[in-house]
Every structure is written in structure tokens, then in C-alpha cells.
Specification:
seven-stranded parallel β-sheet, Rossmann fold, alpha/beta
Length: 322
């Protein structure tokens, strides 16, 4: 029996795919609102025939957002970017986009809403990314007071961009750069745990809470890099990169990012992000308040990083272990 219709903006990302699978398994009908429907066909796989519908929508355009939420019982906004490109700006996606989704939900009398923000969101942050996330949160709270806002820490999983990005770098480079000596603290959280949190909130109905969600371990950037090297069985020299050098690299990356088809290694705003500790406060309820026991980085990524080992995924050592 269907639990209703839920609209998911940004459903084609790593987190979105997990949420679609979980909600489809629970019996929800799903309207996956994405910018490029022709590349999102895999979203149909977890559902029964007709259970999942893929529609075109861009959170920056109010009309497409309003059409997407028509007839829905719940709304989930996952839309977000890690770097600006053309008209896809932090303010446009995280702030204006969040406002458009919230207003569309409000106009459709939908108060069961989950909005994904980011740990560290702060209107006074030195990071443009985090400031835009804070502005988006405020827009959602002002418009749909019952919406739950989730602030996940750095998310990891087999298809993430950070942990697997470090593994790819270890494949190509004899040294591993460690920004600022690697002292920045992070609390990596498994993307499937965040998807499960969304699933439970939508099932019960949002209640206007702000939830800061992290994994069970606080790790330094250096510890995360060392874990990746150990998991991929690679020995690399860890080279501390002073922040002033990182700032220059970020400036170059930001400039290159304006060139079509160029994906810079790092931007100025990402350097600012790397300088801030991203740790859930001790008194935050976190995932356990939702009945979720978070997975550790090693429990998930040790196996996920096997393809990046120097002797490959199908080496006899791996086959024997299996």
C-alpha cells in the first residue's frame, strides 16, 4: 500500500539514490526532480513499474519547482553543489533554491519536509559555501517551520568524492599533500546512515528540528589520509602544505574553474572549508536519537577502496580473502 507521494530534489546524487531506494522499499511513490532526467534512469531500478517518476526541475527556477511538488505529501531537498560553475552558484542553489522549494511546499500545504544543509553552516563563516547553507536554512525555517533541517558532516561511501578522491590521488602521485599539516578535525558519516535518517523522519513527519549528524569517530585530515593509504596498501610520503600555499592553489583552482570542462583540484572556498573543524557538538542528539547506530569509516571504506589497491581488485590476495 502506498504511503503517499514524495518529491525529492537532487535525487540523482549519492545521497539521493540511497533515499530513493529506501523510500521505494517502504512503499512511497517517488517523484525524482533532477536537472537532467536523461542521465537519471538508474533511479527507476529500485521501484515497481510506475512507482518512481523522473521529472525535470531546477531549484533556481520557481515554476519548475512548483510543478514538481504538485500533489505531493512530502518534500525532500538535497540540491547542493561543492563548487560554483556558471549560473550554478552557492547563493542560487543553497539559498534561493532552498527558498523556492520551501515556498512551493508551503503553497501546496506540505509541511512534511526535510532539507539537507551542512555541518558548520553559519552566516558568519569565512566560507561562502557555509554562509549560503545558513541562508538556505533560514529561508526554510521562515517558510515551513515544521521542516527538519539536517546538517551532515563529511559524507563517505563507495561513490563519494572525498575519500575515493584521495585514493585516486594515491594511485597517481608519489606524495600525498596534507593541507595545513592535516590537523583539521572531521567526523565522517556514512551516506547510508544519513539516508536512513531521512527515511525515518519522513515516515514520522518532520517536526521543525535542526539535527547535526556525524559518524562515531572524530578524525584529523592526516588520520583520514593515512587510513586511505593503509586501505589501498600504498606507501606515500605525506607532505604538509602550508595554508598560504593552499590559498594560492585555491586561487588558481578558482580561476581554472571558470573554464568549460575544467574541474579544479581545489578552490579558494574549499581551502577555507578545510581550515574549519567539522565536528558535531557533544550535546547534539545526532543519529542515535533516531535509533541509528552510525558506521565507522573503516567498516565501510576498507572494502570499498579495494579497487584502488596497487595490485588491483581481482588480485589473488583479494580472491583468497573473499
Amino acid at each position: 500500500m502506498s504511503k503517499g507521494l514524495v518529491c525529492i530534489f537532487g535525487a540523482d546524487g549519492a545521497l539521493g539514490r540511497q533515499i530513493v531506494e529506501k523510500l521505494a522499499g517502504d512503499g512511497w511513490r517517488i517523484r525524482a526532480a533532477v536537472r537532467r532526467p536523461h542521465t537519471a534512469g538508474e533511479l527507476l531500478v529500485p521501484g515497481r513499474v510506475g512507482q518512481i517518476q523522473i521529472v525535470q526541475a531546477n531549484v533556481r527556477y520557481r515554476l519548475s519547482v512548483s510543478k514538481a511538488v504538485t500533489g505531493c505529501d512530502a518534500v525532500i531537498n538535497l540540491a547542493g553543489i561543492l563548487r560554483e560553475k556558471g549560473r550554478q552558484t552557492f547563493n542560487g542553489v543553497h539559498n534561493i533554491g532552498a527558498r523556492n522549494v520551501a515556498e512551493a511546499a508551503c503553497n501546496a500545504d506540505i509541511d512534511n519536509m526535510v532539507h539537507i544543509s551542512a555541518l558548520g553552516a553559519n552566516a558568519a563563516s569565512g566560507s561562502k559555501y557555509l554562509r549560503s547553507k545558513a541562508d538556505g536554512e533560514q529561508a526554510v525555517r521562515d517558510t515551513v517551520p515544521k521542516a527538519d533541517i539536517l546538517r551532515p558532516a563529511l559524507m563517505f561511501g563507495p561513490q563519494d568524492g572525498f575519500i575515493t578522491g584521495l585514493a585516486r590521488l594515491a594511485m597517481l602521485s608519489p606524495v600525498m599533500p596534507v593541507p595545513g599539516g592535516g590537523h583539521t578535525k572531521m567526523q565522517p558519516v556514512y551516506v547510508t546512515d544519513i539516508a536512513e535518517a531521512v527515511r525515518r523522519i519522513v515516515a514520522e513527519g518532520s517536526s521543525g528540528q535542526i539535527r547535526e549528524l556525524g559518524g562515531p569517530q572524530v578524525l584529523s585530515l592526516r588520520q583520514i589520509t593515512e587510513f586511505v593509504l593503509e586501505a589501498t596498501d600504498r606507501k606515500r610520503l605525506l607532505v604538509p602544505i602550508p595554508w598560504f600555499v593552499m590559498n594560492m592553489m585555491g586561487m588558481v583552482g578558482s580561476a581554472l574553474g571558470h573554464i568549460p570542462l575544467v574541474k579544479p583540484w581545489i578552490t579558494s572556498d574549499q581551502v577555507k572549508l578545510l581550515r574549519e573543524d567539522m565536528v558535531v557538538p557533544d550535546d547534539a542528539p545526532g543519529l542515535k536519537a533516531l535509533g541509528i547506530i552510525p558506521e565507522t569509516l573503516a567498516a565501510i571504506m576498507s572494502e570499498a577502496l579495494i579497487p584502488y589497491r596497487k595490485y588491483g581488485q581481482f588480485h589473488e590476495m583479494i580472491v583468497e580473502d573473499v
